[in-house]
């Protein structure tokens, strides 16, 4: 133990020899919120503190949520340990278990434990959780009466079940019902007593509550509703033997579990003179009224609210860690929570304000026989609450819209029928997860099966999609299975799972999301990456492989001709203008405007393929020719010999403009689609974008160029051209949506150019047009491109301005070959 | 073991970038960090042999260009949860030239 005594006043401690000593962080409460904060802190500032943790339970940190599955014999205590003792050791954390802190000396900055240990701190984190609320009635201290909070309570219940018969659970909230279900599985006769008219009245409306009661009764539970408990009656050995109600009725009970609510555990803080009001009062940075003392978890009162679910606590933990690390960023602004009941075989979900108010509307679907009930509460075109019973497939989808405040009028007709009804052919995987066996493959890219994911969630204590991606790789490549992974996560974790909000930070290097970054680049006129990172207080000296390419694109698209392009922040393909292959060679795809070539071009390609012994010549899915397997040092010579423009087949930028033969030859053609395609490809050549952009032009509605699955699809009709946007033929096929119809060739260029320019200016990096439109809505796009004529013209002008003077990158490299040393290897 | 071999002028290696040294046995990636520290590691990713020299360099790591494993330039180890390691070589810079211990 550190020697006691006064610490120097500065936040950093200097030893006599002037070397810097680490600051000391002490954590009181070794539970879910406290340890999550420490984990977040270690992630961003691993060497900042000497950390000491005090916990009054005898165990290292475990997953409290999973006590219910332990009681229900679905898991063991060993399964639910989140941080083993070895973890504390590996991270140089001093852990004291069975050590309750009973005094904080704030003046001298020391905490004292009941068992005699003490520790000095520079910063203190309080994470003391909460306590079960015990009704103030006679008999509450009898043997056989408990709350349900920790491993000890759980073990006590399991043991009681071995020798006793009658269990009474007081309180039909989530905790009470999970306790009752577990005790039933342990073999007891269980009666749940509740003072209100239906179960889970804080989470469900009456209809859903009654459906739930029926299901639980079928599992063998008994219910006594609208009963007020008056007294617990003892037998001769001082153990509880019965429960008596205010109406005089008595029922047998040799185990009573109190589950009528929890109370934030703030007595320690209060005794130290830290301001409390039904909880430890914290500001949006999780700081208490004593600036050296932070608090997170169920023990706090934030903007007057104390939370009892882990999702908000984890958000607090993230914010708190950034402040403990002295980054001074991140604010916690409160959370909307959702709940699920962890009773196997019962699907129930609720979120937000599900009872509604006078000015809200409801959409309800009720199939009493099928056991399905869904209610959505809507106000001002947004979902504000939801109750789902029997089919919770879309719970996280609704919850996400609720948290994002997404306008729903466009999908209102389909809302009730779920995300799958929106033309989603099952790629998101909702409702598929449950039907899968553990051996079935979830992630096709990385070969990860369902069992592996579940095991990782349980063994490693994962709570977020990002964690699962990191640990298992599932969902980290093409992303098409993320919906399925999310389902597995949600069903494994129950209510502990909170779907991510879509407006998330660009990466771990910053708190800011894409929109904020774009806005700051515009408002502060950042012109290069170092300035932008400095100005926006990036946490890392030069970013990472995720944020640098995004920043580079945002700078270039916001300040064309002014911002400095940084080749080192571009992915190799864009840096060397060729696509890297699995063996480190490259592919070369020259442009063939509109898919049209000539004998002369073909001859050149053939000659080059011979000269450089190109291993494969292939016609691509995009109407041109690919030379695959080229060595990096041959690239420049090959481009020189080819003397054709780059096809940008490697770029987040304009790719192909596919065309069909059109009216010049085809007997059905109504418009010259080939020429239109050539003109578009030439007009927008060299354009960088948030992701790749593909066009297609067909000469008639037979649509041989497949315009229906392109970012911009154009279809010639007798009276002009139809323009479709947001199609995608890739990972998840999306049919393009009709934008408008125009008459002339020039209008096609102007409308599609304006559309692409607004996408370039507003979409997040790596969003294809379909993803961007899904977020902003087609109405918005129509408004900007179709209705606002002046805005459209201006956007089109901005695109043309950005493209002014752009050059073919291959020719540029050929001309300046000494400048691009990158293509030469060194030999010794 | 040979000794120190002169490789290239430091300015011929881009900051936050790399060059490739080709030898008979294998290729070595020579990396230059933002603060001009130079690291040399085997130009093959422990995952599937991706050419690390072609990746995006940040901090003291490089993200492999093929599947984005993050490899430390300091000790050649892959960032968790990936597991693997690639060989490292000693480097020094004298009078603006990079030397490699081979
Ligand atoms: C060469 C080509 C396959 C072929 O031999 O035909 C191809 C090859 C690759 N495609 Fe593709 N795609 C090719 C046409 C397509 C098409 C068809 C089309 O354009 O009509 C699609 C579906 C249409 C679409 O994009 O909407 C297509 C959808 C994808 C996707 C999924 C994109 C999505 O948003 O869902 C990827 C992955 C990505 O970009 O992240 C991808 C990624 C790739 C990459 C770049 C993978 C990679 O990162 O290395 C492949 C590079 C191979 C190489 O060495 O050049 N490729 N790819 C085609 C080149 C067309 C061209 O001339 O430029
Ligand atoms: C059976 C059960 C099921 C649950 N199911 C869900 C669910 O499905 N979804 C969900 O979101 N949430 C669920 N919860 C709630 C969730 O577990 C809590 O929200 C979460 O654990 C609170 O974290 P915390 O760190 O604030 O408190 P805790 O995890 O309780 O940690 C506080 C720790 O501090 C210790 N401590 C207190 N005072 C002192 C002191 N003076 N000195 C030293 N140590 C001290 C306590 O003993 C405790 O170990 C469930 C809870 C229970 C009990
Ligand atoms: S070319 Fe496209 S579809 Fe074929 S393997 Fe590569 S990425 Fe997959
Ligand atoms: S080869 Fe490097 S990540 Fe796959």
Which descriptors apply to this entry?
heterodimer; A: 828 residues; alpha/beta; FAD/NAD(P)-binding domain; Enolase-like, domain 1; 5-stranded parallel beta sheet; 25 helices; 39 strands; 30% helix; elongated; disordered N terminus; B: 102 residues; mainly beta; Rieske Iron-sulfur Protein; 4-stranded antiparallel beta sheet; 3-stranded antiparallel beta sheet; 10 strands; 0% helix; binds siroheme; binds flavin-adenine dinucleotide; binds iron/sulfur cluster; binds FE2/S2 (inorganic) cluster
Task: Tell me what you see in this structure.
The complex is a heterodimer of chains A (828) and B (102). By secondary structure, chain A is α/β, with parallel strands linked by helices. Chain A folds into 6 domains: 23-129 and 264-324, FAD/NAD(P)-binding domain (3-Layer(bba) Sandwich), CATH 3.50.50; 145-260, FAD/NAD(P)-binding domain; 347-415, Enolase-like, domain 1 (2-Layer Sandwich); 433-496, BFD-like [2Fe-2S]-binding domain (Arc Repressor Mutant, subunit A, Orthogonal Bundle), CATH 1.10.10.1100; 514-559, no CATH class; 653-807, Sulfite Reductase Hemoprotein, domain 1, CATH 3.30.413. Helix content of chain A is 30%, strand content 20%. Chain A has 25 helices and 39 strands. A 5-stranded parallel β-sheet of chain A has the order 5-4-3-9-21. In chain A, α19 crosses α25 (809-815). Chain A starts with 12 loop residues before the first strand and ends with a strand. Chain B has one domain: Rieske Iron-sulfur Protein (3-layer Sandwich), CATH 2.102.10.10. Chain B contains no helices and 10 strands. Chain B is globular, with a radius of gyration of 13 Å. Chain B starts with a strand and ends with a strand. The model of chain B has no long low-confidence stretch (mean pLDDT 93). Classes of the chains: A alpha/beta (828), B mainly beta (102). The complex binds siroheme, flavin-adenine dinucleotide, iron/sulfur cluster and FE2/S2 (inorganic) cluster. Residues 28-34, 54-57, 64-65, 67-68, 100-101, 127-129, 148-149, 175, 178, 265, 268, 297-299, 308-311, 313, 342, 494-496 of chain A line the site of flavin-adenine dinucleotide (FAD).
């Amino acid at each position: 133990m550190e020697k006691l005594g006064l610490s120097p006043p500065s936040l950093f401690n200097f030893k006599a020899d002037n070397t810097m000593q680490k600051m000391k962080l002490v954590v009181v409460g070794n539970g879910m919120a406290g340890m999550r904060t420490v984990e977040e802190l270690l992630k961003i500032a691993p060497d900042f503190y000497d950390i000491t943790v005090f916990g009054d339970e005898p165990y290292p940190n475990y997953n409290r949520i999973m006590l219910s599955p332990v009681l229900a014999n679905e898991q063991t205590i060993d399964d639910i340990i989140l941080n083993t003792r070895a973890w504390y050791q590996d991270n140089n954390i001093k852990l004291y278990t069975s050590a309750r802190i009973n005094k904080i000396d704030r003046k001298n900055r020391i905490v004292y434990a009941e068992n005699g240990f003490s520790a000095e701190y520079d910063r203190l984190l309080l994470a003391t959780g909460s306590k079960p609320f015990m009704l103030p009635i006679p008999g509450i201290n009898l043997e056989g009466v408990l709350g349900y909070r920790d491993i000890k309570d759980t073990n006590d219940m399991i043991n009681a079940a071995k020798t006793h018969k009658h269990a009474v659970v007081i309180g039909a909230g989530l905790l009470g019902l999970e306790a009752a279900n577990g005790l039933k599985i342990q073999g007891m006769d269980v009666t749940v007593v509740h003072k209100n008219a239906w179960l889970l009245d804080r989470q469900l409306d009456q209809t859903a509550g009654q459906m739930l009661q029926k299901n639980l009764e079928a599992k063998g539970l008994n219910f006594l509703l609208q009963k007020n408990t008056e007294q617990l009656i003892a037998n001769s050995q001082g153990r509880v033997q019965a429960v008596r109600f205010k109406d005089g009725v008595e029922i047998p009970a040799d185990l009573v579990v109190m589950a009528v609510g929890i109370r934030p555990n703030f007595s320690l803080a209060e005794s130290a003179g830290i301001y409390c009001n039904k909880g430890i009062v914290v500001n949006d940075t999780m700081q208490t009224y004593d600036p050296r003392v932070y608090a997170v978890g169920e023990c706090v009162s934030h903007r007057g609210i104390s939370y009892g679910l882990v999702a908000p606590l984890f958000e607090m933990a993230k914010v708190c860690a950034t402040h403990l690390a002295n980054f001074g960023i991140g604010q916690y602004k409160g959370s909307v929570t959702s709940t699920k009941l962890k009773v196997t075989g019962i699907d129930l979900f609720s979120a937000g304000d599900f009872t509604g108010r006078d000015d809200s509307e409801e959409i309800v679907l009720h199939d009493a026989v099928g056991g399905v009930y869904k209610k959505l509460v809507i106000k001002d075109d947004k979902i504000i609450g939801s109750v789902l019973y029997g089919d919770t497939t879309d719970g996280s989808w609704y919850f996400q819209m609720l948290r994002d405040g997404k306008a729903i009028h466009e999908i209102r007709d389909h809302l009730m029928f779920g995300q799958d009804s929106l033309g989603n052919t099952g790629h998101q995987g909702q409702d598929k997860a449950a039907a899968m066996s553990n051996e079935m493959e979830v992630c096709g890219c990385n070969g990860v099966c369902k069992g592996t994911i579940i095991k990782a969630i349980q063994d490693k204590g994962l709570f977020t999609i990002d964690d699962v991606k990191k640990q298992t790789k599932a969902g980290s490549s093409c992303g098409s299975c993320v919906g399925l992974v999310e389902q597995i996560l949600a069903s494994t974790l129950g209510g502990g799972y909170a779907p991510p909000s879509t407006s998330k930070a660009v990466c771990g290097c910053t708190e800011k999301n894409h929109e904020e970054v774009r806005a700051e680049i515009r408002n502060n006129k950042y012109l290069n990456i170092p300035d932008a990172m400095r100005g926006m207080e990036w946490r890392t000296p030069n970013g990472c492989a995720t944020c640098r390419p995004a920043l580079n694109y945002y700078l270039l698209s916001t300040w064309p001709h002014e911002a400095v392009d940084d080749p080192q922040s571009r992915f190799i393909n864009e840096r060397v203008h060729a696509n890297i292959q699995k063996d480190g060679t490259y592919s070369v795809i020259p442009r063939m405007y509109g898919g049209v070539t000539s004998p002369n071009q073909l001859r050149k390609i053939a000659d080059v393929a011979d000269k450089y012994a190109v291993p494969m010549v292939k016609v691509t899915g995009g109407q041109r020719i690919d030379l695959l397997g080229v060595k990096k040092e041959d690239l420049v010579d090959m481009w020189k010999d080819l003397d054709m423009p780059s096809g940008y087949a490697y770029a987040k930028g304009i790719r192909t403009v596919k065309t069909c033969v059109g009216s010049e030859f085809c007997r059905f053609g109504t418009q010259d689609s080939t020429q239109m395609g050539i003109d578009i490809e030439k007009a927008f050549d060299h354009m960088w974008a948030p992701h790749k952009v593909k066009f297609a032009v067909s000469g008639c509605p037979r649509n041989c160029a497949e315009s229906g699955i392109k970012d911009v699809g154009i279809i010639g009709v007798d009276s002009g051209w139809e323009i479709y946007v947001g199609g995608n033929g890739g990972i998840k096929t999306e049919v393009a949506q009709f934008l408008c119809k125009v008459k002339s060739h020039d209008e096609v260029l102007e409308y599609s150019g304006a559309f692409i320019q607004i996408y370039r200016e507003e979409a997040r990096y790596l969003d294809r047009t379909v993803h961007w439109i899904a977020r902003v809505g087609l109405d918005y796009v129509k408004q900007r491109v179709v209705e606002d004529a002046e805005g459209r013209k201006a956007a089109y002008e901005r695109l043309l301005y950005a493209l002014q003077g752009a050059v073919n990158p291959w020719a540029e490299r050929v001309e300046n070959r000494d400048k691009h040393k990158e293509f030469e290897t060194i030999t010794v | 073991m040979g000794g120190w071999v002169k490789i290239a002028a430091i300015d011929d290696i881009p900051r936050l970038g790399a060059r490739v040294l080709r030898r008979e046995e294998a290729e070595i990636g020579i990396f230059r960090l933002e603060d001009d520290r130079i690291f040399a590691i085997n130009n093959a990713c422990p995952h599937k042999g991706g050419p690390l020299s072609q990746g995006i360099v940040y901090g003291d790591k490089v993200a492999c260009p093929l599947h984005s494993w993050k490899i430390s330039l300091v000790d050649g180890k892959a960032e968790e949860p990936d597991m693997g390691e690639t060989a490292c070589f000693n480097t020094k810079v004298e009078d603006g030239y990079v030397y490699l211990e081979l």
